[in-house]
Amino acid sequence: MFSVDGCQHRYCFSCMKQHVEMKLLQGMLPKCPHEGCHSVLKIKSCKKFLTSELYVSMSQRIKEASIPATEKVYCPYPRCSALMSKSEVLGKAANAYAGAQQTGAQKCTKCSGLFCLNCKVPWHSNMTCYDYKKLNPYSCVGDAMLKSLAKRKSWRQCVKCNHMIELLEGCHHIYCRCGYQFCYNCGAEWKDKKATCRCPIWDERNIIRNGHNRPQ
C-alpha cells in the first residue's frame, strides 16, 4: 500500500499509478485521490511506482506548475523545447554578456541556443524585433495555416500560454496544460471551478457518441 505524504491516505500502488498517469495526461499536477483532500503528491515518494517516462512527465508538470503562465518561456528550437522562467533566462543572460536584456537576445539554459525573448524565435541577428515581426507576421511557416485551420475547426487557443486546443469529447470546461481554465464555447475564464459565462456546460454531440463509434 502507498501512503500519501501529509494526509496518510492509503491506496494500492496499481491504483496510484493509474491515478497519476491520468492526471498527467490531463495536464494536471497529481494530488491525493481521496475526495476533498488537497495533499500534493511528492515525486520522491511516487518514484516507488512510476515508470521512468511517468517520472519525467511528473517532473515536468511540477516545474510547469511552479512557474506562472506569464513567466513561462519555451526554447524555440524543436530539438530542445526546454521550459524556463523569464527570471531564470534573464539571470543567466545578465552574467553571460552585457545588453542581452535590452536587445532581447537570450540563451537557452539547456541547449545554449540563442533566441529572442521578445519574439519567441531563434535569434534574428542584424534585425530589430519590429523589423522581424513586420517581415514575419507568423513565427513559422506553418503558423498561418494553423490559424486558418483553427478558425475553420473552431479550435480554442489558451490566452495564457497560446496552446491550441481541440475538443473531441467531454464538456466545455477546459483545463489547459498551463493550469488556466476556460469555457471552450466562448473562451471565458473559469474561476474557483465555476464558469463566468452562461454557455451550456456541454454539447450532446461531444458527450454521446454515434452508434457506429460504440464498442461492440
TrEMBL record:
Entries under InterPro entries matching the protein: E3_UB_ligase_RBR, IBR_dom, TRIAD_supradom, Znf_RING/FYVE/PHD
Species this chain originates from: Nyssa sinensis
Enzyme Commission (EC) number: 2.3.2.31
Protein name: RBR-type E3 ubiquitin transferase
UniProt-listed SMART domains: IBR
GO MF: ubiquitin protein ligase activity; zinc ion binding
Keywords: Metal-binding, Repeat, Transferase, Ubl conjugation pathway, Zinc, Zinc-finger
SUPFAM superfamilies cross-referenced by the UniProt entry: RING/U-box
Reactions it catalyzes: [E2 ubiquitin-conjugating enzyme]-S-ubiquitinyl-L-cysteine + [acceptor protein]-L-lysine = [E2 ubiquitin-conjugating enzyme]-L-cysteine + [acceptor protein]-N(6)-ubiquitinyl-L-lysine
Alphabetized Pfam families for the sequence: IBR
CDD domains: BRcat_RBR_unk (cd22582), Rcat_RBR_unk (cd22584)
Domain of life: Eukaryota
Domain RING-type as annotated: residue spans: 1-203
Biological-process GO terms, alphabetical: protein ubiquitination
Named cofactor requirement(s): Zn(2+)
Gene3D superfamilies the record matches: 1.20.120.1750, Zinc/RING finger domain, C3HC4 (zinc finger) (3.30.40.10)
